[in-house]
Amino acid sequence: MCQYPGCDASAHEVDHIVPQGLGGKSSLCNAQLLCGTHHKQKTAQDVKVMAKADRQGVRSGQQARRKRNGSQIQSRGFDKRYRKKMNGQVERVT
Questions:
Q1: What is this structure's pTM?
Q2: Is 80 within the bounds of a domain?
Q3: Average pLDDT of the residues in 77-92
């Protein structure tokens, strides 16, 4: 059954209660079953909220970094002066 209040339709789509783009986790406690109609409505509403958050500079985290820097995942500053050997030892690159 669809978990939208007052809807008796059968639910076949899983939806994030708090969208991942707004910091929601991908877990069962953040999931709900919705019918196709209500899933489309909620997704359209979520897209508007995320766009507003982008305009106001509210969003943070990986999703926002991808938006600002393109689709590539950005490095968090891995120190390239060192490398790890296959035997587990770390050596300084000169």
A1: 0.58
A2: yes
A3: 74
